Structure formats: C-alpha cells, structure tokens
Amino acid sequence: MDSKHETSIKRAVQRLFAKQRLACLATSGARQPHTSLVAFAATDDLEAILFATAKSSRKYVCLKANDRVSMLIDDRTNRITDFKKGTAVTVVGRAEELDTDRGNRYLKLYTKRHPYLEEFVESQQSSLFRIEVATYRLVTRFQQVEELHMRRRVGH
Fold first, then answer.
1. DSSP bridge pairs for 74
2. Cβ-Cβ contacts under 8 Å for 12 (sequence gap 6 or more)
3. Which terminal CB of the chain, N or C, has fewer other CB atoms within 10 Å?
4. Class of domain 3-149 as given by CATH
C-alpha cells in the first residue's frame, strides 16, 4: 500500500474517532465471546486505543484470561442510508492493563476525552487498558473494505 493511500485511511479513521465516543469491545473468556460498550480514546498516531473498565466486570475477567481483542466503532444512524453512507472501523490488537499513575500520559489522554469518567478511571476498583493496534479494517459504502496494518507487528 502506498503512503498516500495509507494516509487516506488514517484520516478516515481519525474523522470517525473524532465523532464517536463509544465503541463495542469484543473479548473472549474461557467459555465464550463477550461484547460490551466502552468509552474510548485513541492516540494521535493511532498506534493505541484506550478504554476503562471496572475490575469486577466480566470484560476485565476476559481481558485477564485472553489479551486478544477487537473493537467496533461506527457512525450508524439506524436508517437505510447507513448501507451507502455508513462507516465502520474494526480494530484488532492486544489489550494491556496500564498503571494509572497521575502522570501517566495515557490516563491524561483518556480523561481529556472523557473528563466525566476521571473519578471512575482513577478509582482502585477500575483499570485503564491500552490496545496495541495491529490492524484497522475500514468499511465504507456497505462493502468497501480497506485494511491498515500498523508498523508495530502484534500477533492477531
């Protein structure tokens, strides 16, 4: 893929991320897959995506058992026009639990995007995770699929 095309995909992903605050996170535990809504934030270079969860949640248990995850972010409106105008991005990567020291740059990025979640993410009962992104799959016009493989190679 040439750098111009790669830049075009990155811009499309960044535009979508700028408009959306929630994503569907897919994890897998010992028995079955699990999905849940999470508030997310992405780094400017798109190398990582952040989300927080309660340590008592099913997703936390799944993440500790299996760090492979995917995430769906889309702009659907629940109208027929979504088939021609909708955009969706699937993120594939590995999730890592982060130390949430006050000076942590990821914590700052996350709380800047979601200031209303600062108390939640900084509590002892919650944890901040970083997805190291391996691949973005951008879907537009219902069936046009483009992939962006990030420079750092992550198993997926």
1. 88
2. 87, 138, 140
3. N
4. mainly beta
Beta-bridged to residue 51, according to DSSP, are 40, 129
* Separation CA 61–CA 9 (nearest Å): 33
- Alpha-helical segments (H) within the chain: 3-19, 58-65, 82-85, 105-113, 118-122
What are 16's two structure tokens? 């979508």
What is the per-residue pLDDT for 153?
47
Q: 154 pLDDT exceeds 70?
A: no
Collapsed DSSP state (helix, strand, coil) of residue 108: helix
Coarse DSSP helix, strand, coil percentages of the chain, rounded to the nearest 5 percent: 30, 40, 30
- Tokens 């992903």 -> residue: 13
Report the distance separating Cα 24 and Cα 26, nearest Å.
Answer: 7
